[in-house]
Amino acid sequence: xxxxxxxxxxxxxxxxxxxxxxxxxxxxxxxxxxxxxxxxxxxxxxxxxxxxxxxxxxxxxxxxxxxxxxxxxxxxxxxxxxxxxxxxxxxxxxxxxxxxxxxxxxxxxxxxxxxxxxxxxxxxxxxxxxxxxxxxxxxxxxxxxxxxxxxxxxxxxxxxxxxxxxxxxxxxxxxxxxxxxxxxxxxxxxxxxxxxxxxxxxxxxxxxxxxxxxxxxxxxxxxxxxxxxxxxxxxxxxxxxxxxxxxxxxxxxxxxxxxxxxxxxxxxxxxxxxxxxxxxxxxxxxxxxxxxxxxxxxxxxxxxxxxxxxxxxxxxxxx
Length: 319
Hints:
34% helix, 8 strands, alpha/beta, 10 helices, Rossmann fold, globular
């Protein structure tokens, strides 16, 4: 697999930004990346991570956009409303509306094939991808989850996290300085992202993420949250799914993808779990668990090989 440098590929020339939805005064955007040409192409709906609390559509690495464009795909990277101002049910509505916008408006706006749509996401975006597997209709042709999760009820999210409690404790008043204002879709500045990251850190240290994001206490009302756990909602018509996860992930434990794979196996859903041995969270974009001086992203041999598998999987399911 060959990846050109940014000097050889000007990603901005292939991007167009749309408003796919407006809620009150909040416009929610999508960036559409498309190579020149008039032919109808399959599309990837790409969903960013950030614990549903921070992040935006610009988190899609340019080298990955280029990879998908070169392979013949149109890529649609979306924003969605962020928690805790917006709760999970409404965030999922944004994902469904984005998917339907691509399916219904995409053929006319940017010439995608509505019958060949895949959903892909990283971390919390991987979680939303797995939710799309049973909450979006018609079903996507394929799902690709990078270090995502199919369960939000487990101790990993609903109890104080040992790894994050190695960090200095975040006081409640400091944690809430960057949240609680108007509804937003995407965290547009580095300072705001940092503030909202502190809120996420506070949630992990206290085991409060499920309650802050859903508005429901997982300990007193666990059944209410089962509808938001993909691994508990897999049926035989769930889309073919590819899971990629580092076995040294300290943010989303590797076992979450193992559990999701087991749920898919029980329902005979075509799937594959790729364990990225020795790598941690965001292995495709960050230095995490790698020796000093090791190359990043698609330049890393393990990551390049994994993306070859991603393309082979997409090509097989979208053909």
